[in-house]
Amino acid sequence: MKDNFNNTQHVAITNKESNWQILKDVSSNFISSLSSNMFTYGLGLMLLDQTGLAISFGIGMIITPIVGLLFLIPVGNLTDRYPHKKILTYSIAARFIALIIFAFTIDRFHYLYKLIPVIIFLSINAISLNFSNTSYSASVRELVNKNKIQKLSSLTQGAASLSAILSPAIGVALYSTVGFEIFIYIEIFAALSTFIILQTMHFHYGQPLNKSVEGASFKNFKVGLQYIKHRKLIKVILIVALVINFIFTALNLGIPYVIKNQLHLGNAPVGYLQSGVAIGTLAGSLLMLLVPEKKWFVPKLILPLLSFGVEFILLGVIFLNSLNSMQLIIWGTVIMVLIGLSVASLNITIQVRLQKTVPTYLLGRVMALLTTANTSVMPLGTLFYTFLFQVNFKGGYLFVINGIVMLAYTTLLLTKLFDAIRSERVTSKNKNYSA
C-alpha cells in the first residue's frame, strides 16, 4: 500500500449521522470517565484506610505504563487487524466481567492483602483500556466524516474534563456516606451503559481488513515504526512530548507537596488548583470548537508548547512569594486554568492531525506506540521528582527551573518543528508500507 498522508475513509458519512455518532460517543465517554474517576478516588481512599500506604493513590500510575509496554505490540497489531467495534465490544465485556469478580472477592481480603485483588483488577483494567483507547483513536474516521473530527475530539475531551471537575467532590461524598462498595456498582452500571451505547453506533469500514497483521509479530509492528520515521512532524512531536510528560509529573506530585508540606496552607488550595486544570481543559475543548480546523495549525501547535514553560515559571514565582491562602488560590488557579487551556489546544490539534493524516491501516500501531511512549516516562518522572521533594528541594525553585528547561528545550526544537511542518505539505507518493 502507498503512504498517502491524505488517506481517509472513502465512505460517505452524512453530517446528520456524524452528529448522532458524536452525541453517543460523548455520552459514553462522560459516563465512563466520571465513573472511572470516582472509582479511582474511592479505591485510593479505601486502600489508604486499609493499608495506610502513601502509594494507595499511585498504584494505577505504576501498573498502567508497565501494562502499556508489555502489550504494546499486540494492542497495535490487533487493532489494525480486526474490526474496531468488535475489539471495543470484547474489551468492555472483559472489564465488565472483571468488575463483577472484583465485587465478589474484594471483601474476602483484609489490610495489606487487599492489594492482591486490587492489583489483579487494575492489571486487567489497564489491558482493557489499552485496547479500548487505541481502537477508539483508530476508528474516528469510521464514526464521523472528516469535517466533524475536530468537533468529536473537542467534545470528547470536554466530557473528560467535566468529569474530572465533578468526580472528586462526588467521590469523596459517596465514600464518606456509603463506603467503597457503591463505587464498584456504579462502575458496573457505567460499563453496561457504555456497552449498550457502543452497540447502537455504526462503524463505517472503508477498506478491507488487514488479516496479514499478526497479533504478536514485531515485524508487523515495525511497519508503524517505519511510518513514524518518515513522518518528521510525528517524530518531533514525540520527542517534545516525552520531555513535557516527564516534567509534567512535577505538577501532579509537586502542587500538593509544596502547598501542604512547604507552605503549610492546608488542603483547600490544593483542591482549587487541581480543579483549575480541569476547568481550563474544558474551556480549551469548547474553544477549539470555534477554531476552524483547517486554519492556524502552526499557532495551535507552537503557542501551547511555548506557553508551558512560561506557565511553569509563573507557578514557581507564586510559590516563592509569601502569599496567603486566598491569594495563592486566586493566582494559582488562574495559572492552572491557562495550563489546562494549553493542554486542550495541543492535544486536540495533534489528535485531529493524526486521525486525518495517518492511513487507517496503520492508525492502531501508530497510536499505540505514541500513547505508550508518552505514559512510559511518567514512572521515571515520578521517581525523579519524588526524590527531589523528599530531600526538601524548595518547590518554587523547582517549578521555575522546570519552566526554564521546558521553554529552552522547545525553543531549540522550533527550527526542526517548522521544518517538519513544511514537509507535511508535501504528500509522499513513493513510500510503500505493507501492513
Describe what this molecule looks like in 3D.
The protein is mainly alpha-helical and 435 residues long. It contains 16 helices and no strands. It has a single domain, classed as Growth Hormone, Chain: A (Up-down Bundle). Helices cover 79% and strands 0% of the residues. α1 runs parallel beside α7 and α1 packs antiparallel against α8. It is globular. The N terminus and C terminus are likely disordered.
Short description:
It is built from 16 helices and no strands.
Alpha-carbon distance between the two ends: 8 Å
Mean pLDDT: 81
Q: Could you say what the CATH topology is called?
A: Growth Hormone, Chain: A
> How many DSSP E strands?
0
* Order of H and E elements: HHHHHHHHHHHHHHHH
CATH class: Mainly Alpha
User: Helix- and strand-based class?
Assistant: mainly alpha
Helix percent reads: over 70%
Which architecture per CATH?
Up-down Bundle
* Low-pLDDT segments: 1-10, 427-435
Q: For the CA atoms, what is the radius of gyration?
A: 22 Å
Give the percentage of residues in beta strands.
Answer: under 5%
Query: In total, how many domains does the architecture comprise?
Result: 1
Number of helices: 16
Shape: globular
What is the H level of CATH, i.e. the homologous superfamily? MFS general substrate transporter like domains
Main beta sheet: none
Annotate the secondary structure layout:
Blueprint: H1 15-51, H2 59-70, H3 72-81, H4 84-105, H5 115-138, H6 140-143, H7 149-178, H8 181-199, H9 218-230, H10 232-262, H11 268-290, H12 297-320, H13 325-357, H14 360-390, H15 395-412, H16 414-424
Helix pairs in contact: 1-7, 1-8, 2-5, 2-14, 3-5, 3-14, 4-5, 4-8, 5-14, 7-11, 7-13, 9-14, 10-11, 10-14, 10-15, 10-16, 11-13, 12-13, 12-15
